[in-house]
# Entry
Amino acid sequence: MLNSPENNPLIKAAQDCHGQIPFDKIKTEHFMPALDWAIETAKARYEAIKAVRKPSFENIMVAMEGADAELSVISSVFSNLSSVMSNAEMKKIEASFSKKLTKYSSDISLDADLFAQIKVLHDQKDVLNLAADQKKLLNDSYKSFVRRGAELGDLNKTRLREISETLSGLSVDFRQNIMKTDDAFEYWVDDLNDLKGMPQDNIDIAKEAAKDAGQGDKYLISLDASQVMAVLSYAEDRKFREDISRTWDG
# Structure
């Protein structure tokens, strides 16, 4: 089982929101169990918030601020890694990850009981003696829930859920199609002098990529962000920089 801190380094890292992320230990199979755990944890906290009988800024707004802290860490790690990892395993789970995350977001933003707790405070904001930052948080949270559909009727909420899930799926498809295009890009360099100015580490990466492609006597530049930045920042050949820049910008 990968749904506990003891056997899932991503969950363990998420529990320490300000700690270092052990990217070297995180594997593809850790993501979905970590996501399920984080959603379950966050929902339990929201259920406790909904059960509060005497709403206050502390037991509603402050509690909500930290309700999905671990989920934020896990989703951020996944987002960063999925944007640079194009392996089949990562692509396979990205749609499921996005779908679950979208459903969770809708579950929270469209929860009538949760919104009711916020509304109680918002209706009393002028007599609660709130500091300026507290009042802003309350106002922003209230507006966010309203704009995300909290006041819609049941039929419209259902329709909004469907739209959100569709957009989530299309976003994943779009991102993966872009990565396919980037992966297919090849910029071959015959002469080492054409790479003049680039850091040696990036030149070595280009050399290894060429070897892997069966042309060890050349250099292969991909659209990997680190390679692109190295070219644009350090390469002395203006035409080289222009070619990569135009491709990178689409």
Notes: DSSP finds eleven helices and two strands in the chain. Residues 185-249 form one domain.
